[in-house]
């Protein structure tokens, strides 16, 4: 009986009172800044064309409004609206196609570069957000800042210039956060000077809280959250999905336990959460509900994956699938050229329409890329390499979609991952003969919803198997190396002239599409 009482004592049911923050194991030593660019895509377009600044502007992808500037928002046009709906609300709306992300990626990199001039501890989140841990650079800013005033807003206060309250904590977090607000202001000012882009910012002692308060005052403003106001912030949230890091799939699982709101999650026992989640996830969920987050700011290097996707209402034709993958591959190779690294894995994804799920079912497959494909680097990718990659794309596609039956797809995606630097790549060809065992396609069945952001908890299963056919691997290697022979129409291999799409797909299955074939199929869709 005593053991049972002790176990229950470790799983309290309670709601955080006003001073409970002092009793919780929160670390107030850090100062984290979350930066979020205001209507990012629209701002990039306004920087490129300043005449758009005072006009209602929307950036679209397909039939959806991905964002709009504040002029358009004041006239009733919101992001994520259907284009038809937006034009009905505002016929004078100026629309720009945002399908090509080149300019947005470039501006995003420039913003992150500015932030890194203040601290190396910078983590990118998508194209328009950055976390910065400025804890180690605060000393100079503490001396510069006014201990009784703050740059920007204080969460819970109506006036930004109001004299600050005292420090009930006593650990020094008050002066650190005041200094952090000064750093945030200077970072935002430098971003405007360097890029013309304004940002809002949140300043707090962890990533979760900084992100939650960064959007309280927009645009081009910032908000500081002191630890003694964390309970007020968390209790102001309603549904569990309002907590960053808890996505739609996680919310549904929580709802199965009768947990719908943040307060429900705060009052839940670990025993209840353990019925659906492992120990680590259960504890993290409870911590997040109280505003506790010890996740570090992870320095972002170059992206681990370079990918593109195309979403649509319906694709049910193999010809259209091939056309869209060709277009995505061409765009992806341009991004790969800009990046400069050598990919070792190709990943292909589809989203299948499902009447039972709002966003359908995603499924992906990936396969190793032969080292010979990029033997000359990624700056000048030849038609042979393009053809071989396209073969692999369609081979992976057919593993996911049975084209002998009717199919309904709403998204196609292609990406490169598991990059290696040029120096290590140069040795990979020789290693191929002695060490490399070509693994067969690594299969991943991923069920996720489009609306979930980076950082949400997702579940997936990975299955892999090893193909011991060294002869087959060697044949593929030699075939892809032989630019002037194997793929030459004069060598007797492609003497039949152009082929139809079905012939192409048939050849795709055995890796035998040649240069002439690839040019022919490209021409059909240009």
From TrEMBL:
Domain of life, source organism: Eukaryota
Pfam families reported in the protein's UniProt record: IMS (PF00817), IMS_C (PF11799), IMS_HHH_1 (PF21999)
Region forming the signal peptide: none
Ranges annotated as spanning the membrane: none
Annotated region described as Disordered, given as residue ranges: 484-526
Keywords of this entry: DNA synthesis
Domain UmuC: 32-247
GO molecular function terms noted in the UniProt entry: damaged DNA binding; DNA-directed DNA polymerase activity
InterPro entries linked: DNA/RNA_pol_sf, DNA_pol_Y-fam_lit_finger_sf, DNA_pol_Y-fam_little_finger, IMS_HHH_1, Rev_trsase/Diguanyl_cyclase, UmuC
Keyword Lipoprotein appears in the UniProt entry: no
GO biological process: DNA repair; translesion synthesis
Family the UniProt entry places it in: Belongs to the DNA polymerase type-Y family.
Name recorded for this polypeptide: UmuC domain-containing protein
